[in-house]
Write a structure and sequence with these properties.
The complex is a heterotrimer of chains A (about 375), B (about 325) and C (about 260). In chain A, helix 3 (about 65-80) runs antiparallel to helix 4 (about 80-100), helix 3 (about 65-80) crosses helix 6 and helix 6 packs antiparallel against helix 9 (about 350-360). The longest helix of chain A has about 35 residues, at about 230-265. Chain A is globular, with a radius of gyration of 21 Å. Chain A has helices spanning about 5-35, 40-45, 65-80, 80-100, 105-115, 230-265, 280-305, 315-340, 350-360, 365-380; strands at about 120-125, 140-145, 145-160, 165-170, 180-185, 195-200, 210-220, 225, 270, 275. In chain A, a hairpin with a 2-residue loop joins strand 9 (about 270) and strand 10 (about 275). Chain A contains ten helices and ten strands. Chain B is of the alpha/beta class and about 325 residues long. Chain B has helices at about 20-35, 55-60, 75-90, 100-115, 225-235, 240-245, 275-285, 310-330; strands at about 10, 15, 20, 40-45, 65-70, 95-100, 120-125, 125-130, 130-140, 145-150, 155-160, 175-180, 190-195, 210-215, 235-240, 265-270, 290-295, 305-310. In chain B, the strands form four sheets. Chain B has a seven-stranded parallel β-sheet with strand order 7-11-6-1-4-5-12, with helices on both faces. In chain B, strands 15-14-16-17-18 form a five-stranded parallel β-sheet. Chain B has a three-stranded antiparallel β-sheet with strand order 8-9-10, with no helix packed on it. The longest helix of chain B has 18 residues, at about 310-330. Chain B starts with 7 loop residues before the first strand and ends with a helix. With about 260 residues, chain C is an alpha/beta fold. The chains are: A alpha+beta (about 375), B alpha/beta (about 325), C alpha/beta (about 260). Chains in contact: A-B, A-C, B-C. Chains B and C meet through helix 3, helix 4, strand 7, strand 9 and strand 10 of B and helix 4, helix 5, strand 7, strand 8 and strand 9 of C.
């Protein structure tokens, strides 16, 4: 066993940490308050290669492994979970399935633009009546005259407003549930696709979340991703990677809470001594550090397994479950230790606290993850909805 | 050998166009202490220096060695190195003290390499123990203090931080003047095109007794005028922490801290500076620290001798007036 | 232009430094990075190469772990990297390190040698000018601006002095040490890191440099001990809600305690 990061991993870590500290941290609070999409930061991130971490060099990427991606995402989320999710969606939910399931032509057409930041991607799975129960989705795809025609309404699409390329899951086959689904590469410029409502959110406010509306949207046959009826499999395989990305985001948030709090308690004096000299504070910090460490190692393990081409559904779910709950718990502790200062926008911990909540919800709620894990343990299908 | 007594100590006179810098006198004081009854020699290099300043003698020099040569009218690394190397090879001193100025730092290592002398820079204390020169110096951006020993049997060059040793009181001692000359063949390959004074700096930050410094709390470039006004009445230099520099409110040469200058004035007045470690690295060697900040939890208060929790926009103008009055009265 | 950049790996300046009881610093868990002045030196070299062509060679004298700093320079875009690694260098003083670096640079006929103004671990600022002397190159230290006229074989640099800026003309080849304000170093890109991974970092010991231990000269300076700095403690805090009272307290502090009035 080997727990050391490689030289490249450490170099990436230093680079992204530095980039995030200089380019993101100083504006993170303002981006959050103004709920403004950070286009400049995203193009600088792309110049560094952060928009196509695992994309091979022939497609303009860095060809790094999934562990490297976890490192990148943690460092970005340490500075801003909102900026990070924009990057993470591009890497895990858009580039990754194209790499795994796309044809050579699809890779050539889409990956370089995504990796170089000329194009941004989004992932359209959730629908008004298909969230946790994603495989019940109702968007239709019909083959008409050699073209696919898509109709339906997608919800909670991260990057929905700015994305140029949408991976849309739709029902194309007679078969029920997952087996009836296919995935499509839908360009925003295709006729019949539009951005619907844009949501106002509690956290990750500089990333957009919107509806994507498909009204007889015409998609060329060659834009089918994978085979017909493979959509369910693609969606689930993609989610394994996506969950690792969210685990990394949660680790970054929890670490941000830990680091800001550690600094604050040394500076903040109460009853004539620094807050750090009270045992209640010390234990809280020790617990935060312990959980951050455990979460990070589990995220690394899931990414490492996936890099080896092994199935990692259970490990990805485990990592996301513990990391997201750690993020929520640690940011909650941080706000409490900051007291009144934790509740105002002059200090960053209230932002971490708001940002953390989504990690327990998207790409599999904590409840769904527990379901996945318990199914794996006892094989019960009794409580599975549909 | 008696503890600390060297038969001879040389001090390189730091000056610009004849104006002698304060550190020269600080070094003369230290040189006297290290030499005891031995000889303190001030080395003055210049072009068109007729009569060396009497103050070298009054501050403790026994001898002034003057090399007056048009090729030394302006500082050049190679000219100065050649002059000092010529003097030292004729008669090597046990110790040469050089002030840590832009010129001193440029010159000393090159000279050390030429003379195969042992060198230590950034010294804040100096002593001779068991035949070795022992210097302490800040390291790791002032997060540690190192003790460096220079080996016996070598010429020593110590580059000394400004404002760490006191200027000795003037006495009636007189130094004899010895004229020496620069060797005929000295390649000076660099050429000074021009020297542009930076207008606003009245006292160089690194030499100032009092520094008035501003941070993010000043809110904008126009408010540095409040610091300028106070600095004028205190005869102080104006500096800043990093945020005002990064925001373009003040030029880069204002910056005090890890990425800027390191200062150790008698009093450091921090206005609207929170006290990030990066800033503390540059000013925590100040003898007295006064901090004005509206945030009672600002880390700067942890090391301020006097901390004022309040609005600097209210306090600074009144302080300037009060100091003015006291000066007139006093 | 062929440019050699000398770099060093140092503790991250944001990391807390723990001094061990028997001297030296505790390196466990310490984040080690390329000295940031050296990042500016590397950036300066890369820009010259982009302007005039040629190669950028980076060299570090240090322990095995210093490879990582060299790798960073390669990831930024340097062409070649060499680690000078020899037991004799472990306890070497600055002049001895400069002699080893000089032996590496001399046969490479560099048009420019670029170093950081100082390294943030020991703050010595000795190696650069000493190296210029050993290589018999003209020098300009702590430069804040660098303009090279390759055809004329000279550079115009700006140096920040106390209260003045010196504009200096320096013939090439020359040695420069650089200030932070000279440029904004690029980040190594992820593809750059992957390319750097495939590059070989050469390792040379003294013998490979054609030096014997005696050629390094005897050690003149020894770091005998390292101690934590004396802690400053908080003094008096006054409430400035009443500015007149605060001013009174300040004036008495400046006059009676600090004695500057």
């Amino acid at each position: 066993m080997e727990f050391d990061l490689t030289e490249e991993h450490r170099l990436i870590q230093t680079t992204v940490k530095d980039f995030a500290a200089k380019e993101i941290t100083p504006v993170a609070a303002r981006l959050d308050q103004e709920a403004r999409f950070p286009s400049e930061i995203i193009s600088r991130a792309a110049a560094l290669g952060l928009m196509g971490v695992m994309v091979p060099e022939e497609y303009g990427g860095a060809r790094m492994d999934g562990v490297a991606n976890v490192i990148v995402q943690e460092e970005l989320a340490r500075a801003s979970a909102g900026v990070q999710v924009i990057v993470s969606v591009s890497n895990s939910l858009v580039c990754d399935p194209i790499l795994r399931f796309g044809t050579a032509e699809q890779k050539r057409r889409y990956l370089p633009a995504l990796a170089e930041g000329r194009s941004l991607g989004c992932y359209c799975l959730t629908e008004p009546s298909a969230g946790s129960d994603a495989m019940a989705l109702e968007t239709r795809a019909d083959l008409r005259g050699g073209e696919w025609v898509l109709s339906g309404r997608k919800l909670f699409v991260t990057n929905g407003v700015e994305a140029d390329l949408c991976i849309v899951y739709a029902r194309s086959e007679e078969a029920p549930g997952a087996r009836g689904l296919s995935a499509f590469l839908v360009e925003k410029s295709f006729p019949g696709i539009a951005v619907g409502n844009v949501e106002h959110k509690l956290g990750i406010r500089c990333s957009s979340t919107s509806e994507i509306l498909l009204d007889d949207c015409r998609v060329p046959a060659e834009n089918l991703l994978g085979g017909r009826g493979e959509g369910g499999r693609i969606a689930l395989a993609t989610l394994d990677g996506g969950r690792i990305g969210i685990a990394a985001q949660a680790v970054g948030l929890a670490r941000a809470a830990l680091e800001e709090t550690s600094a604050h308690v040394k500076e903040r004096w109460v009853f004539g001594r620094p807050l750090s000299e009270f045992q209640a504070t010390q234990w809280a910090l020790a617990d935060m550090a312990t959980r951050v460490d455990a979460s990070r190692l589990l995220a690394y393990r899931a990414a490492w397994l996936r890099d080896r081409g092994e199935r990692c559904t259970r490990e990805a779910a485990t990592a996301k479950l513990i990391a997201s709950e750690t993020a929520m718990w640690a940011t909650h502790r941080a706000v409490q230790l900051f007291g009144g200062y934790g509740y105002i926008q002059e200090y960053p911990v209230e932002r971490y606290f708001r940002d953390a909540k989504i990690t327990e919800i998207y790409e599999g709620t904590s409840e769904i993850l527990r379901l996945v894990l318990s199914r794996d343990l006892i094989g019960s299908r009794g409580s599975t909805p549909r | 050998m008696a503890q600390g007594a060297l038969p001879e100590v040389w001090v390189l006179v730091a000056h610009r166009e004849g104006a002698v810098r304060k550190i020269t006198y600080e070094l003369l004081g230290k040189a006297r202490e290290l030499a005891g009854e031995g000889r303190v020699v001030a080395i003055l290099l210049g072009g068109g220096v007729e009569d060396p300043d009497r103050r070298f003698g009054r501050r403790g020099a026994d001898q002034v060695v003057l090399i007056d040569d048009p090729r030394l009218a302006q500082y050049s690394t190679e000219g100065y190195a050649a002059a000092l190397a010529a003097l030292a090879s004729e008669h090597p001193p046990p110790l040469l003290l050089i002030g840590s100025t832009a010129q001193g730092r440029d010159l000393a290592p090159r000279l050390a390499a030429r003379l195969e002398a042992a060198i230590v820079t950034d010294c804040q204390t100096l002593a001779v123990e068991q035949g070795e020169l022992v210097a302490t110096r800040p390291m790791y951006t002032r997060k540690a203090i190192g003790t460096v020993r220079l080996a016996r049997g070598r010429m020593w060059i110590a580059v000394v931080l400004p404002a760490v040793f006191p200027v000795p009181a003037e006495g009636d001692h007189r130094a004899e003047v010895r004229k020496a000359s620069l060797p005929p063949e000295v390649p000076i390959r660099t050429r000074v095109v021009e020297t542009r004074a930076i207008e606003r700096e009245t006292v160089p930050l690194t030499e100032a007794d009092v520094i008035v410094s501003g941070g993010r709390g000043l809110r904008g470039p126009e408010n540095f005028a409040l610091l300028d006004a106070l600095a004028r009445v205190l005869e102080a230099a104006v500096g800043s922490s990093r945020p005002p520099v990064d925001s373009g409110w003040v030029p880069h040469d204002y910056e005090i801290g890890q990425t800027g200058k390191t200062v150790s004035p008698q009093v450091y007045i921090a206005c609207g500076i929170s006290g990030a470690p990066q800033h503390l690295a540059g000013m925590s060697g100040s003898k007295f620290i006064l901090a004005i900040n509206k945030d009672p939890n600002a880390p700067i208060f942890q090391l301020a001798d006097l901390g004022v929790v309040g609005d600097l926009f209210e306090i600074l103008p009144r302080l300037t007036e009060a100091v003015k009055k006291r000066k007139v009265a006093g | 232009m062929n440019i050699v950049v000398c770099i060093k790996q140092v503790p991250d300046t944001e990391a807390p430094i723990r001094v061990r009881s028997h001297g030296g610093i505790d390196e466990t868990g310490l984040n080690l990075v390329m000295n940031y002045y050296d990042e500016h030196a590397t950036e300066a070299a890369l820009r010259l190469r982009e302007q005039f062509g040629g190669t950028v060679t980076v060299v570090a004298a240090g322990p095995e772990r210093a490879r990582e700093a060299l790798r960073q320079a390669l990831a930024m875009g340097a062409d070649e990297a060499t680690l000078l690694r020899d037991a004799a260098l472990d306890a070497a003083d600055h002049l001895q390190v400069a002699r080893a670096l000089a032996a590496f640079i001399r046969p490479r006929t560099a048009d420019a040698v670029i170093c950081g103004k100082l390294s943030t671990d020991d703050n010595a600022a000795i190696v650069g000018p000493a190296l210029a002397e050993l290589l018999d190159l003209p020098q300009a230290t702590a430069i804040a601006k660098l303009e090279v006229d390759d055809g004329a074989g000279r550079a115009i640099v700006h140096r920040e002095l106390e209260g003045a800026v010196e504009v200096l003309e320096v013939p090439l080849p020359a040695l420069f040490t650089v200030e932070r304000s000279l440029n904004e170093p690029r980040y190594p890109s992820l593809p750059g890191i992957m390319k750097a991974k495939r590059k070989e970092i050469a390792v040379m010991d003294l013998a490979a440099l054609g030096l014997s231990a005696e050629d390094l000269g005897t050690r003149g300076a020894t770091l005998a001990t390292l101690a934590a700095p004396p802690a400053r403690t908080a003094g008096v805090q006054v409430n400035g809600a009443d500015p007149e009272a605060a001013v009174e307290a300040i004036v008495s502090f400046l006059g009676e305690r600090a004695k500057v009035l």
